[in-house]
Design goal:
By secondary structure, the protein is an alpha/beta fold. It contains 20 helices and nine strands. The chain starts with a strand and ends with a helix.
């Protein structure tokens, strides 16, 4: 057993900020190193949602940081305070293995991973989202009694998912034993079809109809799926009749979802339907500042206003602009300034002339197609499921934008230009030999060009 030396946490976080800035969050300061025993460094995380997020997304990065800081071959394990107390109670004896299931709250559905970033404190309220925010707060305070169902709709990247995560986290904080199921509509449909094929509809129905709160993201994907609509109708009724809370999000209001059964439309309209609109300039400035603080990005006072003036589409574009600025700063080795932000974003905007896809739209198309996260693409992870989409991004960025190899590499986590060259060559060679990959790249390009021509 080895006690943690003073300053260890600071050294660990400094390494992460220098080498994995994309994953760093301000709440990392709340992580408490415990001790090193049998080659395992235990890090105590008090918030269950943060704990689960770190276990699922950050173990590799923290292990790398711990090994570099200590010079030892260690493995990092994130544990809850309860598990830490059990291990300490064993004294000098060999510690029992901390089973991942013991850190998993009873409410957790394996399809669900809540982001600690998306809570009410970090949600910026403005004229375009005030009603949706107020309704979300009311539902979080009185589930099943305030607004049921709660139906939030709006364009892509405007904060619908943020509000859904915030409601879930608020509910679970007040009622840790709540049976909460948060799932995407596509996953709901996939599980339904699997249950039909396997003859396990009883298990499927028990899973969703016994929930205290059912949250489904992107419910508009039910469009044209008659069988799934039928099943969801009965699931909705089963929960509604016993006053269990139902929360839905969609890109369109209920009446404008094509080929949605009238009986579902009427049930959606029976609750609170709240729209989220594009943020105004003042709201966008606040969003940029909030996102920068979350990612520990120090911005001069004039940069948020500049970014907000340049980008008026949605929050994802604003976040992408911050990522672009950070990548540009890493690639050039310069501190962030208004001039650097202008170079980063003016270069991006220049590539949009002639209906050319932007780098941000390329990333959005690739992450959506391969169902990967932006943070994974920008990370150092090399798993095939991440490396291939990252290479496709670099290939398309080189093909469809005017950015240099160095700029593209800087955007993707400060990578060297040779990495981009290797990615481009790899995709070109593999696509020639692999018809499936060629078809995937063609479909992404078609999506890009269609979106750019709108």
């Amino acid at each position: 057993m080895q006690k943690i030396e003073p300053g260890f946490r600071e050294s660990l976080l400094d390494y992460l900020r220098k080498n994995h800035a994309d994953i760093c969050r301000h709440w990392f300061d709340d992580i408490e190193p415990s001790e090193i025993r049998d080659g395992v460094l235990r890090l105590v995380v008090r918030e269950p949602v943060q704990l689960r997020y770190l276990q699922r997304c950050c173990g590799t990065h923290f292990t790398e940081a711990a090994q570099n800081v200590t010079g030892r071959l260690l493995v990092v394990r994130f544990v809850s305070p309860d598990d830490e107390a059990k291990l300490e109670a064993q004294g000098s004896g060999a510690p029992a293995e901390v089973d991942a299931t013991s850190e998993r709250p009873a409410w957790l559905d394996e399809q669900m991973l809540l982001s600690p970033d998306y809570n009410f404190d970090s949600f910026v309220v403005g004229p375009g989202n005030r009603l949706a925010h107020a309704a979300a707060l009311a539902v979080a305070a009185k589930p099943g009694r305030a607004y049921n169902p709660l139906f939030i709709h709006g364009g892509v990247g405007l904060g619908k998912t943020h509000l859904l995560h915030a409601i879930c986290q608020s509910l679970l904080k007040e009622q840790p034993g709540l049976r909460l199921c948060y799932i995407s509509c596509n996953t709901f449909m996939d599980l339904f079809h699997e249950a039909v094929r396997a003859g396990r509809m009883t298990d499927f129905r028990n899973r969703f109809r016994t929930a205290d709160v059912l949250v489904i993201d992107d419910i508009h994907f039910l469009s044209k799926h008659e069988q799934t609509q039928e099943e969801f109708f009965h699931t909705f009724n089963a929960l509604y009749q016993v006053r269990k809370q139902i929360i839905l999000s969609s890109d369109a209001p209920p009446s404008e979802i094509p080929d949605l059964e009238e009986r579902l439309t009427s049930r959606f309209l029976a609750g609170m339907v709240a729209q989220i609109e594009r943020p105004c300039f003042e709201t966008r400035v606040s969003i940029v500042k909030t996102k920068a603080a979350l990612h520990e990005l120090n911005l001069p006072e004039d940069v948020p206003s500049y970014v907000a003036a340049k980008i008026d589409t949605n929050i994802r574009e604003l976040e992408g602009a911050l990522t672009r600025i950070r990548g540009f700063a890493m690639a050039t080795g310069q501190p962030i300034s208004l001039e650097l932000a202008k170079q980063a974003l003016d270069g991006e905007l220049a590539t949009r002339s002639g209906n050319a896809p932007s780098l941000q739209s390329i990333i959005e198309s690739v992450t959506r197609f391969y169902d990967v996260k932006l943070t994974d693409l920008l990370s150092k992870r090399r798993q095939k499921s991440i490396a291939m989409p990252r290479q496709v991004c670099m290939y398309l960025a080189r093909k469809h934008t005017r950015f240099s190899l160095e700029e593209i590499g800087g955007y993707f986590g400060g990578r060297d230009h040779t990495t981009v060259m290797h990615a481009v060559r790899t995709i070109e060679e593999k696509a020639e030999a692999d018809q499936k990959l060629q078809a995937e790249v063609d479909r992404i390009e078609q999506d890009l060009l269609q979106r750019a021509s709108r």
